[in-house]
Design brief:
Elements lengths: L1 H4 L14 H7 L6 H16 L1 E4 L5 E3 L8
Antiparallel strand pairs: 1-2
Length: about 70
Amino acid sequence: IFLHNHHGNPNKTNSRKETALHYVCQERNSQYYTVRQRRCDCLNLILQWRGATLKDGQTEKVDLAAQDE
């Protein structure tokens, strides 16, 4: 919702330099399909996100190399 409706940016970090991608990957695996499916849906949204057009003409994408503290 925030990525699309509110122009969110999954590359933004918190005080520990964690991104939305960090949070999705940190969660423990659940035995419940619905929880796993929601997690997978969130991951897909993050990976498909496209942001602003950069100076070089490329579109901003999620930073897969982002490192937390």
